[in-house]
Amino acid sequence: MRRFHLIGGHGACMSISNLCRWMISVVRSNVEDIYVQFNGSYKNDREFRVPGCVFTCKSLTKLELDLSTSCKIILPNSISLPRLRYLKLNNPSFDHVELTKLCTNYPVLEHLDLSGVSSSEPLNINISSPTLKHLNLVHIGYYNSIHNTLRLCAPNLMYLVLSNLDYMLLEDVSSLVTADVGVQLKPRKLNAKFWRIHAPDTLKSLKSLHNVKDLTISLRPLKDVRRVQELLQEQPFQFCNLQRLKLQKISLSTDSVHAIASLVKISPIIESIKLELCQDMETRNNYNYSESDSGTEPEQEMESDPHTSETTVDLQGLLSDTMKHLKSVEISGLQGSDNELEFIEILMKNVVVLEKMVLKRQYRSRIEKLYKEVENFPRASSSLRICFYFASN
């Protein structure tokens, strides 16, 4: 048997015990591809002890488990999958020991996808693989009070997606082409080590992405976005191959605009910029980590931010020499604020070969005013097309 795909649940025939019997049977048939989507009883199926023979199957090349009940996975003590190239787990619950076992012992693994992994304790993920090409770690240990860390060494990695990490150290990702990362500018609870250790490592993580062509960044928390500019000024580098940049959940405040300009300035051949704007209420809901997140009293800040002074930067000067290759700009979630209009105007004055600008409003109100103001801005590129959309479009 080469492939075994099983989808079901919420019935006696799909209890955890029967699921284990199915998997044991197919492993005995030298299966190569296992996909199981299990929607078992939330009350009765809280733990899934994966049969030991599954993780010692010599023929298995692809394993995908979608456990929509978020039941806890218990792995066998021995793991040996010499031919496994693709591993994907969706919605499992792990403790640190189980996750450590999961991220090792795969000599030819090329694709690792862990989505919706929950945990009641911090997850310290250490991945070192010379064969890994695709890594997706999304919503890892997603409780707000949890501090999650990643240390990654994957010299042949080409595609990377990361989220919900307070600390990431990308030691070797020199082959990376596409990256989608959440950059934590400050830990959820500030401590004395941050300015000495974590801030330089944040910059080191950005530096390690210098070869990528497609980059998506979520900067967190937004109120500290000015630190991007400060970090880049302290230790400058370039995204020498970057062609497409996307910034998610960002505002167009003065600090944010300067951070955007700083990133564009170190991307000499950038061709496309996409900005997904969020409003103040969304920003507070997503990134304001307070004592209510963890149910405990807030920790005292042991060391203050040494970079508290406001930075005054000439935005026109930052962007004037960095738009020579820019062909496309897309901004969604616009409200028509002065900062937004100023940013759009500066773009239009400095772009040389820009072909298309897409502006998406959050609401229909004031669309005519925004349209008239933007249409009257001077343009450096005579062939520029401007498209207006509502969010519903």
UniProtKB/TrEMBL annotation:
<dbReference type="Pfam" id="PF24758">
    <property type="entry name" value="LRR_At5g56370"/>
</dbReference>
<feature type="domain" description="FBD">
    <location>
        <begin position="320"/>
        <end position="389"/>
    </location>
</feature>
<dbReference type="InterPro" id="IPR055411">
    <property type="entry name" value="LRR_FXL15/At3g58940/PEG3-like"/>
</dbReference>
<dbReference type="InterPro" id="IPR050232">
    <property type="entry name" value="FBL13/AtMIF1-like"/>
</dbReference>
<protein>
    <recommendedName>
        <fullName>FBD domain-containing protein</fullName>
    </recommendedName>
</protein>
<feature type="compositionally biased region" description="Acidic residues">
    <location>
        <begin position="294"/>
        <end position="303"/>
    </location>
</feature>
<feature type="region of interest" description="Disordered">
    <location>
        <begin position="286"/>
        <end position="310"/>
    </location>
</feature>
<dbReference type="InterPro" id="IPR006566">
    <property type="entry name" value="FBD"/>
</dbReference>
<dbReference type="Pfam" id="PF08387">
    <property type="entry name" value="FBD"/>
</dbReference>
<dbReference type="InterPro" id="IPR032675">
    <property type="entry name" value="LRR_dom_sf"/>
</dbReference>
